[in-house]
Every structure is written in C-alpha cells, then in structure tokens.
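Try it yourself: sequence plus 2-phosphoglycolic acid, in.
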Amino acid sequence: MNSKLIVLNWKTNPISGVEATKLGVKIKDLIKNKKNVEVVMCPPAPFIPLVMPKRKNKGLAVGAQDAFFVGSGSYTGRASSEMFKSLGCEYVIVGHSEKRQDGDTDEVVAKKVESVIRSNMKAIICVGEEIRDKEGKYLNLIRHQVISAISLVKKSYLKDVIIAYEPLWAIGKDAYKADDPESFFHNAVFIKKAFATVSGSEMAVKLPVLYGGSVTADNALKFLVSGRADGLLIGRVSLLPEQVKDIIYMAEQLGNNK
Ligand code: PGA
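Structure, out:
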C-alpha cells in the first residue's frame, strides 16, 4: 500500500445529526486536493447518510464501526454489512475492543469479517492485548485474534483485510499512554507473520497494519515513520478537525515520498 490509511472512529459521537453533518463537512474540506492519503470517516450508523459524499471523492471513504453478519431478518437493533454497503460504505471496523467487551467473541468477529468482505467492503480488524506481560505471552493472544478473525475468508479475498493493532491499555479516555513506535513495529511484524500462516507470505507483505490507541497530532508522525505504520486508527482526536488536519498533512507528505 502506498498511501497511508487514516481511519477516524467517531464512536458514539457527536450527539446530533446537525453536529455530525458539520463535522463531516469539515473533514471533507480537509481532504480536498489531497493525494496519497486515504481517509475513512466512521460515524455512528444513523449519521452515515448525512456525511456520505454525493460523488466518489478521491482519498475519502466512509466506513461503519461494526456490522451484523446476517443480511436481513428478525434481529432487532442490528444493522448488517449489506445495509452499510447499500449506503455507500467501503470499510467496516470489526472486533473493536469496545465491541469485544460488549460480547463479540472471536467466532462472532470471524462471521462479521466474512460478511463485510462478502459485501465487497474492506474489513478493518482490531486486535490487541489487555495487559502487556514482559514474557511476551500477549503475542499468543494477538496471533489467535488474527488467525481466528480471518478463518472464514477465502484466501483470494484476504487482500480486503486490514489489521489495526490497538493495545487496550492505550485506548480511550482511561488510557495511560500510547504504545511506542518501536514496540508497534515489532508487533506489526508479528501480526504479518501470523497472517502469513493463512495467506502465504506474498499477501502478508502487503497486509496494511495500522496503529491505534491515544493517537494525537503529536505522536502520529512517530508511528508512521519510526513505527512504519501503514496508517492510524484514531478515536478521540478524530472529533478535533485541527488535529485531524495536521495528521492528514503528515500522512500525505509520507505518501508523496514513496
Ligand atoms: P483513542 O481510541 O484514539 O481515543 O485512544 C482509539 C480507538 O478506540 O479506536
């Protein structure tokens, strides 16, 4: 992948459609005339139609934060991959730790990934440990999360998979710090190796691995350069256009240099 991928996970924000529309307009303005960077805006499901660009906008895509794996039926409260595809979404985040805490097991994550890809979108699969132990046992968990999440996807479709490495201790307002770029780099290599056991090495080399967890305009460049991240998954800061602007600018410069 040549362009850096910047995923903006708005989570359950902002509170109204009016604010979501305004935020969407601001983000769209930041992308204008940008090359070599792909920004994916992931608003809450009800706001997706409000921010969806009228025409395909180069460098900007819209994604969902989760998707149910059965297309339609008697499943109160669920919105399926097919539905998000029909709205124009190109990506879906799957297996975010906040969804896993809500009860999404590895099995459910695998079904969701399969449904996203079957619906012709890309799956951004989140993996990451709750506790980083010094012995490196957490790597077993990451390997398992990667391999099980892609277990239902046909090999030729694994090109539609993106992995976001997000250690739980680095995510959200209770996070005490971001990971450091060197450790991210080692974990990203480990993730590619785990992926390769299913996909083969040729595809694993091309697998985009993003970093997520307390990303800000101050640490983004370190993850993209020293950590060699293929992109970033951004939570809280995705609601702050000034910081998003700086991060997109950095990502674009790096895309240019490739
Ligand atoms: P954060 O969230 O950037 O607010 O830490 C990241 C995420 O949960 O995806």
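One thing you can check immediately is this: The radius of gyration is 17 Å.
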